[in-house]
Specification:
- Helices cover 27% and strands 9% of the residues.
- By secondary structure, it is of the alpha/beta class.
- The protein has a domain of 224 residues.
- Helix 1 runs parallel beside helix 2.
- The longest helix has 16 residues.
């Protein structure tokens, strides 16, 4: 089983097509211009550290979790993301869970406070002793290779991570050890500093970590906007043909958020808005994904089953031919209008909000020594 852990639904962006509905944090009403749209569900979505500790115990007791994505919202704006990562790294990674990744937009304006690991902190935090039990499959390219190179160097020279740190300025990596991915710089420090510091157009492979956990950006926001589905359009309203099955619970994972466990992340956002909590929310981590009626042992949901239809009929991921935002703008269908208290309002028939802009939140600070 896999888990997408929404550590917060706060974000440094407010994207209208967000499938977590993080944009509801500051979405303005088209009627008044200042009243928040919908019920104020997202006033505080930062998962408390007590719940993080309980989540860790749930994962240990379950013993079937292969992967955890720390995601959001934007996970790096969680005010205690440093402590959260330290706990999950030390308690779970390489012992109970093979793969842990942070999924972030890695936006430069958010990283001015040196949010990501310096080379020193990467070496200090990464769980080298458990490396043999960690799945590195999604730590791509040069990052993957360099972790193995550094681990081998410390072992060959009998160095602890702290003893290895003074050597990173002088150590050069032979091109033959970079897995066919020669960097511009062969000095270890330059390789470890990561692409967020590189000039525009530099295609070096990303090497970003936070408290020793890889930080991945699968796709920039500009690319997502080009192909994103219209989040607030329900196939049920628009007569769209739906798929027979959905693999999101298996492919992405079930969801854990500030308010409990859900069959998937898209579903958690929908269920909150449409008051489907009693049907889909679980307070504790299920022993099996099949505890949600309509999902089989492989994590595949049958969309029109009695167990999933109330949720899937409201989700664009269920549509056989998706309505892409670039083709249809940002429509909002009748079910969503009713849920948001906007039924009968013709002004929102074409756009959720006219001219709603992306906003950047205050940079996070973790009071780290860099």
């Amino acid at each position: 089983m896999k888990i997408e852990f929404d550590v917060t639904l706060q974000c440094n962006f407010s994207c209208l097509n967000c499938n977590r509905h993080s944009n509801f944090n500051d979405l303005k009403s088209p009627l008044t211009g200042d009243k928040r749209v919908g019920v104020n569900l997202y006033e505080n979505t930062d998962v408390a550290m007590e719940k993080v500790k309980q989540f860790i115990e749930d994962v240990k007791a379950n013993a079937t979790i292969d992967r955890i994505h720390l995601i959001g919202g934007e996970p790096l704006v969680h005010p205690h993301m440093d402590e959260l990562c330290d706990l999950i790294r030390e308690e779970l990674w390489g012992t109970y869970v093979k793969e842990i990744l942070i999924i972030s937009n890695i936006h430069p304006k958010m990283l001015k406070n040196n949010t990501l690991d310096s080379p020193e902190n990467l070496i200090r935090y990464f769980p080298w002793k458990r490396m043999a039990f960690i799945d590195l499959e999604h730590i791509i390219g040069l990052s993957h290779v360099m972790l193995k190179v550094m681990a081998a160097y410390m072992e060959d020279n009998n160095l602890s991570p702290e003893e290895f740190i003074p050597e990173i300025d002088s150590l050069e990596i032979p091109l033959g050890q970079t897995g066919g991915l020669p960097p511009k710089d062969t000095k270890l420090r330059e390789i470890l500093e990561g692409t967020y510091k590189l000039p525009k157009g530099d295609k070096r492979v990303q090497f970003s970590f936070f408290h020793g956990i890889p930080v991945i950006n699968y796709k920039p926001l500009s690319a997502k906007a080009e192909e994103h589905r219209c989040t607030l359009v329900a196939p049920y309203d628009t007569g769209q043909e739906v798929l027979e099955t959905c693999e999101v619970p298996n492919h992405c994972g079930i969801n854990y958020s500030f308010d409990g466990y859900w069959p998937c992340s898209n579903g958690s956002a929908i269920a909150r808005l449409f008051h489907l909590e009693d049907r889909y929310r679980r307070d504790t981590l299920p022993d099996s994904i099949t505890e949600w009626d309509g999902i089989d042992e492989n994590g595949v949901a049958t969309i029109k089953s009695d167990g999933m239809w109330d949720l899937c009929k409201l989700c664009q991921v269920a549509a056989k031919v998706p309505l892409d935002e670039k083709d249809h703008g940002r429509p909002i269908s009748i079910s969503y209008r009713k849920a948001l208290g906007l039924e009968g309002n013709e002004k929102v028939s074409d756009l959720v909000i006219d001219g709603h802009k992306k906003k950047l939140a205050k940079n996070p600070s973790f009071n780290e020594e860099v």
